[in-house]
DNA sequence: ATGGGATATGTAACCGGTTACATCTTGATC
DNA sequence: GATCAAGATGTAACCGGTTACATATCCCAT
């Protein structure tokens, strides 16, 4: 009797419900356009047979995958984990899926990963920071794939961005140390290579110092990767010079943790001997002892906002290209007047 | 002249190189089967035109996506972040991509997410623990999709698993406290609901106590979620009873951090007043002060191993179903003889 | 010279959905 | 009753690759 080519998939459902494949497809994607009765009949068959639509086929013909790609430096960092988690929840709630990819701060790898994601048909792409391969931007523009740079605020750039103004925020953090009387201030910052946020923060620190007639002597400035080990090593380096600063501004909370741990090990009491200010306000920061004074950045909102932007673009809405996220200084126990 | 339907995609490349689509496809997927000369000519055209294969179309016809799905409770947890990062690196190195999904410890959500992933054509699936919806297992088996439960070792179960033997490991951790003379020992463990690992660890703790003639009075046992706040609350609860234990075993390092923080705030010195042992050995644990005595679990190896298993299955190899990962007790500064 | 195996390439069906277009119904309007 | 718009449903082309099968070529053994 039956054509053995129609034992599975949408054609099987169609045959069993006595309708055409078009109707089944419509019942699934645009229920309103199918009569109540048919819709119910089709749904019954679907439940009975356990039919699951073939996403690839759907993607091929509709040219939409309901999948968003994100490329971040590394997952193994509390800050990203938080943001990704938030983004993931949001996308999921909108029926989208997130594909995650990491570049290890290498823009060539990033380009490669982006090609990969595009080939897999992501509808939109979320990138970290503003430091990308030119070919990547060209690729995205030429294929008309919406994307956004997250973690920065760059209204003058042509490319969409969402995040805090890192330079201004860093300036604010440094000003706190200056306001409470510190005059000898060191900096532990992240490596600037392919990390525009790290650079912007350093610029902010420097500007605040300069505006107040101070400078940043090389022996008080160390650049390291975002790990506790490296941060401790940086602190060791700074503490080893003759003339130790009375405060240290850090480009990131993790770096601040490292500095505080190492200070404690050296017998330097925080904050009476050394004030430390961080950046990001990870969950840990308020639990530490002393609790870390830091610049709060609403990471979850930022990433969710990035998702909202992409989805809005996909739905054809005309939306602003740049979003500034508010930061705030959270003063806890790790800073004290000189 | 030209058929306007062939301005793009593989047919365009074929036309420009003067060969058939089949040859282009073969040059890409099975280079060895195409003559040196043609291969070069085709590659030139590909480079010139910037052709990127359409992954969806490829997936549809080849029925392989080179994509692996993973469902974890939450990304926002250092333990998972580490494992995912490791898995991601491995898969990426093998030309596979990872799609990540979270279930928030809810097996219905997990089933839903799994359907989603399957509909997107994942070639294999990696799940956390052994606590899943029966329909999920059925679905995977009926579709012949390789999968593995990670973070547990369960040689008696029919389903593949890789991880430490949580019960034995917890037993080991508790034995350490007993060996150094503690007789009044509390436990802060994770919620057991839909978390077989938490249960196994608790069983291990209990067995060690029982074997040594002790029990776990209710007022010394608190179950909480995996957050610092909850862990501190748990510690507060235990410290509030008349008779405070001299040691606390924790189901997880994060819980141990919370207990230590709270102890310190109460003026209890660790380890002289209170010994604390953790579980997992996150990166933080060795940096804390006092550094945390904990049960080291090689998370990165475990997840990478899960990836290796799936890929081996996909390549048709016949491989063992269960892999035990070694744990080890790392004695640092947070435990001391009574 | 002939047959057979190995290698290289082309033809076109196929994967499983979506959707433009055609067809048919129904109800309202004149 | 005729006309027409709106709504419901069916037909089949199409998305962009892969690959089974057919065909062509070349080399070597008989």
Describe this structure in words.
The structure is a homodimer of 338-residue chains. With 338 residues, chain A is α/β, with parallel strands linked by helices. Chain A folds into three domains: 4-53, Orthogonal Bundle (434 Repressor (Amino-terminal Domain)); 65-164 and 299-326, Response regulator (Rossmann fold); 166-297, Rossmann fold (3-Layer(aba) Sandwich), CATH 3.40.50. In chain A, 44% of the residues lie in helices and 16% in strands. Chain A has helices at 9-17, 21-29, 36-49, 55-62, 78-93, 107-119, 134-143, 166-179, 196-211, 228-239, 253-265, 299-314, and strands at residues 67-72, 97-102, 124-128, 147-150, 161-163, 185-190, 221-224, 247-250, 275-280, 293-296, 322-324, 328-330. In chain A, the strands form two sheets. In chain A, strands 2-1-3-4-5-11 form a six-stranded parallel sheet, with helices on both faces. Chain A has a six-stranded mixed sheet with strand order 7-6-8-9-10-12, with helices on both faces. In chain A, α5 (78-93) links the parallel β1 and β2 (97-102). At the A-B interface, α4, α5, β2, α6 and α11 of A face α4, α5, β2, α6 and α11 of B.
């Amino acid at each position: 009797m039956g054509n053995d080519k129609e034992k599975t998939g949408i054609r099987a459902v169609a045959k069993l419900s006595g309708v055409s494949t078009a109707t089944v497809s419509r019942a699934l994607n645009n229920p309103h356009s199918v009569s109540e009765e048919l819709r119910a009949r089709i749904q019954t068959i679907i439940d009975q047979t356990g039919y699951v639509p073939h996403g690839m086929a759907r993607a091929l013909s509709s040219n939409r995958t309901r999948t968003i790609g994100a490329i971040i430096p590394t997952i193994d960092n509390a800050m990203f984990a938080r943001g990704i988690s938030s983004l993931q929840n949001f996308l999921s709630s909108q029926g989208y899926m997130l594909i995650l990819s990491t570049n290890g701060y290498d823009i060539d790898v990033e380009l490669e990963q982006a090609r990969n994601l595009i080939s897999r048909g992501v509808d939109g792409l979320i990138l970290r920071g503003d430091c990308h391969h030119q070919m990547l931007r060209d690729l995205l523009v030429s294929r008309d794939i919406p994307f956004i740079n997250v973690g920065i605020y760059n209204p003058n750039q042509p490319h969409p961005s969402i995040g805090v103004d890192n330079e201004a925020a860093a300036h604010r953090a440094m000003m706190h140390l200056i306001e409470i009387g510190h005059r000898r201030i060191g900096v532990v910052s992240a490596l600037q290579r392919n990390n525009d946020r790290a650079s912007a923060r350093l610029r902010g620190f420097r500007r605040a110092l300069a505006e107040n007639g101070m400078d940043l002597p090389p022996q008080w400035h160390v650049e390291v990767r975002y790990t506790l080990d490296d941060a401790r090593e940086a602190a060791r380096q700074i503490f080893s010079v003759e003339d130790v600063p009375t405060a240290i501004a850090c480009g990131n909370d993790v770096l601040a943790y490292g500095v505080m741990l190492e200070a404690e090990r050296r017998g330097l009491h925080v904050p009476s001997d050394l004030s430390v200010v961080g950046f990001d306000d990870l969950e840990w920061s308020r639990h530490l002892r002393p609790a870390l004074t830091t610049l709060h950045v609403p990471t979850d909102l930022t990433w969710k906002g990035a998702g909202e932007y992409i989805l809005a673009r996909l739905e054809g809405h005309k939306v602003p290209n740049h979003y500034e996220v508010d930061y705030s200084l959270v003063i806890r126990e790790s800073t004290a007047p000189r």
